[in-house]
Design a protein that fits this description.
With about 250 residues, the chain is α/β, with parallel strands linked by helices. The chain has six helices and 13 strands.
Length: about 250
């Protein structure tokens, strides 16, 4: 699709859909809210994109493909855990938190529709897990507590050469700001691992042969993108792909 800039302007920002996250309370609003992280929005804006928060409506009552058709790219952000039944788990680990059935249903459908249509897709943290589950993969519900989980840590990740992730970050190593207690167990159909932490955790995924630009990271590049060109480079590459897709 093509967004036309009014006369006198030389460029237009590609429109980036970012599914909202449900929040029970916020300091600036009196009631529950739909939000996205300011650092994430800032990173997309710095890259030249126009970030647009999208309401997670029930996909059975709203055509997700039609809703996404007006956008040039999709960013699946971090958030709470997916319900374990979404990937066939028999029980629920005590550490699973912030599960929301509507959020899960919407995010999973967004992932499927974006990949099916070739819409540029960047998936972050929960977003990576959503894509993995959408393609039939599974998750490890808990990595094993404070001694093993990747919460509030910055650690190096080794990036596979020749991947979109390596081209975006301009290197085979990156310093990743992580906040997750779950990780990929079984890979979804067609996915390959593009980055790993020292403990073997999958920190990046891609889909060779995908119809459009797609990469996913388990870390939060927005945390340090304002000061780390490698992390901002991921948003820059994503928005560039969205601009090309939009024409």
């Amino acid at each position: 699709m093509s967004h036309r800039e009014p006369t006198g302007h030389t460029s237009v920002r590609p429109l980036i859909a970012i599914p909202a996250r449900f929040s029970a309370t916020t300091s600036a609003l009196r009631y529950a809210a739909e939000v996205n992280a300011r650092a994430l929005i800032d990173a997309v804006w710095r890259a030249g994109g126009e970030p647009a928060t999208v309401h997670p409506a029930d996909p059975e009552g709203a055509d997700v493909a039609a809703r996404l058709a007006r956008f040039d790219g999709v960013l699946l952000p971090g958030g709470g855990d997916l319900a374990p039944h979404r990937y066939g788990a028999a029980g629920v680990h005590e550490t699973v938190y912030d599960v929301d059935d509507l959020q899960d249903a919407f995010d999973l459908e967004v992932a499927r529709r974006a990949l099916d249509s070739g819409l540029p897709l960047l998936a972050i943290c929960r977003g990576l897990q959503v894509v993995n589950v959408a393609l039939g993969g599974t998750l490890e519900q808990d990595m094993g507590g404070p001694e093993r989980e990747h919460r509030h840590v910055v650690h190096p990740v080794a990036i596979q050469r020749g991947t979109l992730l390596e081209r975006a970050t301009a290197g085979a190593k990156a310093e990743a700001s992580c906040y997750h207690h779950q990780r990929v167990a079984d890979l979804g159909t067609g996915l390959t691992i593009t980055a790993r932490a020292a403990d073997g955790t999958a920190e990046g995924l891609e889909l060779p042969g995908a119809r459009g630009w797609f990469t996913a990271v388990q870390w939060h590049p927005e945390d340090t993108a304002h000061e780390d060109p490698a992390q901002q480079g991921l948003f820059d590459a994503f928005v560039a792909a969205a601009r090309e897709h939009g024409g």
